[in-house]
Amino acid sequence: MPGKRARRHFSQISEIERGLIIGMKTAGWSTRCVTGQMDRSECAVRNCWEQWTREGTHVRKTGSGATRKTTRREDRRIVRQALMDPTVTRSTVRTDEGVAIVPQTISRHLAEANLKSKLPFHALPLTLEHRQLRLQWCQARSMWNVTD
Fold first, then answer.
1. What's the start-to-end Cα distance of the chain, in Å?
2. Which of 13, 33, 102, 123 has the smallest number of CB atoms closer than 10 Å to its CB?
3. Cα-Cα-Cα-Cα dihedral sign, residues 85, 91, 92, 93
């Protein structure tokens, strides 16, 4: 299954797998043998071994990631604005905030607050009175034939 291997190739190596790779390499295994045994790419095995020889640790570094464009206060303001006016658009929120952020950031903040977009009604929901009137109308005409 080449598709399964390709997906596994891009997943993160766990701490246990890193320890196994280092153990195999310390025992004298070649990179290719370790690659075949662990079902990982040569690059991943080589990077793990180089980190071990360079730093003496196999612990994965935490990524720094992109710097935040909004503060927590601005995040709360975005969520509050969406709660107060459900019809507000992302571009409106962006201009109101005055911070240079992309619309995806606004969507992510709203998703983190468990706010989801709502589809507009295609038709107004019927009230109880409307439903009863419709039922009476149908029942009155239920015995009609084609000529009626």
1. 67
2. 123
3. positive
The residue with greater pLDDT, 147 or 128, is 128
**Sequence-separated contacts (24+) of 48-52 with Cβ below 8 Å:** 48/13, 48/18, 48/21, 48/22, 49/21, 49/22, 49/25, 52/22, 52/25
pLDDT value of residue 64: 63
pTM: predicted TM-score of the whole model, two decimal places: 0.40
Q: What is the pLDDT of residues 5-16, one digit of tens each?
A: 444 445 678 888
The dihedral built from the CA positions of residue 23, 25, 29 and 30, taken in this order, carries a sign that is positive
The whole-number pLDDT of residue 59 equals 76
- Whether the predicted pLDDT of 92 surpasses 60: yes
